[in-house]
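Reviewers of the previous submission asked for a worked example of the structure-prediction workflow described in the proposal, so we include one complete record here. The input consisted solely of the amino acid sequence. No template or homolog information was supplied to the procedure at any stage.
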Amino acid sequence: MSNLYEVTVEIGDHALKKRDKIIAYLKRLPFFKKDKGYIVAGLPSSYLSRVITAKGKGVLRNELEEEFATRVTHKIWDINEAFCYVTITTVYLEDPPTEEFVYNETDYHQYKEIPIK
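From that input alone, the workflow returned the following structure tokens.
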């Protein structure tokens, strides 16, 4: 059975000084390496400067879609050192219903064990 997926990661409102580190992390994921996908980030001087979109195809190994999405989101938050919006959409290409995981500020606070104000 194949585990071929199309994955889209959208990151918004991240710290500009962490942008390059977030992009470097995304480039290490198998979905976004060289010819398997792409990463688009707004120019630093534009209003889209705090938006990063990555899309690609690859095999999801030994993880469920939600486990993958949670792991990637937590790593992005760790790199960013603060909350930022993360939306991860996975499409199982062998039988494509779409699953989307949207993480909000409450999720961030729970992950970092910060009391919600």
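The chain has one domain: 4-112. We consider this example representative of the routine output the project will generate in years two and three.
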